[in-house]
Amino acid sequence: MVSSEQRRRQLAREKYERQMERRVEAQRKRRQRNIVSGVVAGVVVAAAVGSWAGGVFDSDKKPAAQAAPTTAASPTAAAAPVKGCTTPAAGQPNGKQFKTEPAMSIDTKANYTMSLDTSCGKVTIALNAAKAPHTVNSFVYLAGQQYFDHTKCHRLTTEGIYVLQCGDPTGSGSGGPGYQFADENLTGATYPAGTVAMANAGAGTNGSQFFLVYKDTQLPPNYTPFGKITGGLDVVQNIAGGGVQGGTGDGAPNANVVLNSVTTAKG
Question: Per the record, which residues fall in region Disordered (predicted)?
Answer without folding.
Answer: 67-101
